[in-house]
Amino acid sequence: MSLTKGGGFYVAATLLLGIAAVNTGNNLLFLTVSAMLAFMAMSGLLGWLNIRYLAVSLRLPDEIYAGRETLVGLSVQNRKRWLPSFLINTQLCGVTSVFTMLDAGKSEEGSFITSFDTRGRHHVDRPLISSPFPVNFFVRFTRAPISADFTVFPAPRSASGLFASGTEESGIAAASRQPGYEGDLAKISDYRGGESLKLIHWRLSAKHEVFKVKELTATAEEPVILEVDLLPGRDLEERLGVGTYLINALIKRGRAVGLKIGEDIIQPGASRAHRLKMLGELATYGQN
User: Fold this and answer.
1) What pairing do the DSSP bridges indicate for beta strands 257-261 and 224-227?
2) Which end of the chain is more exposed for a tag (fewer CB within 10 A), N or C?
3) Could you name the CATH architecture of 1-152?
4) Do 97 and 74 form a contact (C-beta atoms < 8 A)?
5) Predicted model pTM
6) 174: left (phi over 0), alpha (psi -120 to 50) or beta
7) How far is the C-alpha of 73 from the C-alpha of 141, rounded, in Å?
8) Tens digits of pLDDT across the chain (288 residues)
9) What are phi and psi of 238, to 5 degrees?
């Protein structure tokens, strides 16, 4: 509980009148001080009841990206059977929402815009509820129980500028340069033991001490598996951002996308649930 300016003046006036009543023995002053104390006690009781039995719930979107503004739905329910609540302020994620009146047994909906700076798992702390009701002499506070765990995906980082041509299309095209069997020739490399024999470049291999194999790009219809450690970027966060961008862009175009993250491999798919699963893996990569 904290005092407002009006509350501080009221308390000071009550104390001064109380001292004057004791010193003078004036019955009228005693009655005045008694009435002021009774009013203070009654306002305190009403203010305490006003913020009791309130429940807060959140509606979070299933796609939240680090550093991007997100619309969050907020619901405050008054669980009291008879008494309404007035002038309710909720502080959550650094944003204050105001509810003028909450009828008994009912809830009110609101929303606010916020952003989360870092990727990964997040937990919303219990929101702070306050109210100056009934006469703005005191502001009372309480914490409402809430349970909201959610995942923030890495901020999408456009692949343009990270590839030779510097265009957004080149970034998507570069994601197709995964080992394939029917695409265009990407490069010639040494045989590592896992390639198909039909990919061996026999004529070139005859001129070297090791087998040479052809690396082909995936065709437009073939699934793509993105390998996080091979994505462009100066650090892990940039690579994860590029991975987020490519997953969204490729699946939007109807391409099946898989993900190799660390030692784990998620097989290609194109459904929304599959896309969110891969984004969730990117969000928590390196944090466990």
Assistant:
1) parallel
2) C
3) Sandwich (2.60)
4) yes
5) 0.70
6) alpha
7) 22
8) 676 777 788 888 888 988 988 888 888 988 999 998 898 889 889 999 999 999 998 888 889 999 999 989 899 999 999 999 999 999 988 889 999 999 999 999 998 889 999 999 998 878 899 999 988 888 889 988 776 789 999 999 886 655 444 444 444 445 544 444 445 556 677 766 555 566 676 677 677 766 777 666 555 557 888 998 888 888 999 999 999 999 998 888 888 899 998 888 999 998 989 999 999 999 999 876
9) -70, -40
Phi, psi of 270 (to 5 degrees): -135, 5
- The structure tokens listed for 89 are 């302020």
List the chain domain ranges.
Answer: 1-152, 154-178+221-288, 179-217
